Task: inverse folding
């Protein structure tokens, strides 16, 4: 994949993400926090605690 | 985060804080893709403030009585660090006054408008703000007329053009 195509793909992803509900984006944020925390711990750096998960809602 | 917002709504209803709104990275999440952050910025007015010094004591005391301790500049409410900030006069105060109603998990809240968030990031101008502006614009187009008005009134147009041109 060329760098131009990668950039285009990132832009499309961002646009798709932006249109999701804030609750769905929150779940993505929690995943980002878990990854960031795990990476910091692996590097031996101070790590912050990920936030609690949102309560699952009955649909 | 819904439980955290419920507590903040209680604080406003009880008059412990005045009008409040979410700013910072969590506010951007309402409009764009999320970016990693570990705190919520709550901008609010504080009642009964005399003089130049801001007294967060009553707010911290109220939350401590509810079982929410402070950690450095944050108060951890339902597992989420919250930073309460009193808006300085100018752009941020305007952002708070014009924040829009929204909901999270059916809990009502208020969020800075997207154009105010972009203008604030220009004004603050840290490297991470510049990156966030670029990624935000790839997520969502602002109301350009509204943004231009803010950038002109707060003398930020040159900085904005510098950031979006990548110079």
Result:
């Amino acid at each position: 994949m060329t760098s131009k195509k990668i950039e285009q793909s990132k832009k499309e992803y961002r646009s798709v993400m932006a249109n999701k509900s804030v609750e769905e984006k929150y779940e993505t944020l929690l995943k980002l926090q878990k990854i960031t925390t795990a990476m910091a711990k692996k590097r031996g750096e101070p790590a912050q605690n990920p936030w609690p998960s949102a309560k699952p809602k009955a649909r | 985060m819904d439980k955290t917002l419920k507590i903040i709504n209680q604080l406003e209803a009880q008059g412990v804080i005045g009008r409040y709104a979410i700013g910072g990275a969590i506010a951007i999440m309402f409009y764009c893709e999320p970016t990693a952050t570990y705190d919520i910025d709550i901008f609010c007015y504080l009642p009964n403030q005399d003089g130049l010094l801001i007294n967060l004591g009553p707010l911290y005391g109220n939350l401590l009585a509810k079982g929410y301790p402070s950690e450095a500049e944050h108060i951890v409410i339902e597992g989420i660090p919250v930073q309460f900030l009193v808006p300085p006069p100018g752009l941020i105060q305007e952002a708070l006054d014009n924040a829009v109603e929204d909901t999270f998990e059916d809990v009502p809240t208020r969020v800075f408008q997207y154009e105010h968030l972009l203008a604030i990031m220009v004004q603050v101008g840290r490297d991470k703000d510049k990156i966030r502006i670029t990624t935000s614009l790839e997520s969502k187009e602002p109301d350009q007329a509204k943004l231009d008005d803010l950038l002109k009134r707060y003398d930020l147009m040159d900085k904005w053009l510098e950031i979006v041109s990548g110079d």
